[in-house]
Amino acid sequence: MHLKSKPESLDDLLINAEHYANFSMRNIGRLPPTLFLIGSDGPLMFMPESLADESAKDDFANNARLMCIAHGATAAVMALEAWAKFAKPGEKFDMTEAPSEAFDRREFVVLMGESQSGQKQKFLPIIRSGNGKFFGFGESEVPEKDEMKGRFAQLLPTKVPDTQLREVAKVMLKVKGVGRAMPGAIPRLPHSRRS
Fold it and tell me: Measured between alpha carbons, how far is 124 from 155 in angstroms, rounded to an integer?
């Protein structure tokens, strides 16, 4: 896996997002949700101020969609940590139990990528040492998915936005008080807050 200094495709963005996830987990012990995109101004990344509750998560997802419109994104990858649970062979999947509350839950970094030609995902199982610190990523046993659904999926507009629509999205972001996306293919890490 070679980091792409100027990503040009969804595959390049996925490589960079995985590199950043590894770097972030090793250095601050977590992965702040991060949107990577390739837009008319080149590669950009966008992170939320906070994801304190469900409303903040919805806001970040909506702002990520606006970022994709505002910057004419042709490819995007959402990178975030998630809990997952799986049905055991021969058992029915329990839809009533949230993955975060499941006894047999598993911790992953999920990379959800999309471009005009389709979606690609990668599930990176998080391995922690005995003291709970990040050790590395395991090999994913999660089968490839044709489509991802949910709050942080389907970020790209169905067609590349024209200049007028891009300007409207920029104004909406400004009115909402959303900071701008940072240029570059390799984001800087936020400062770690340790208690």
Answer: 21
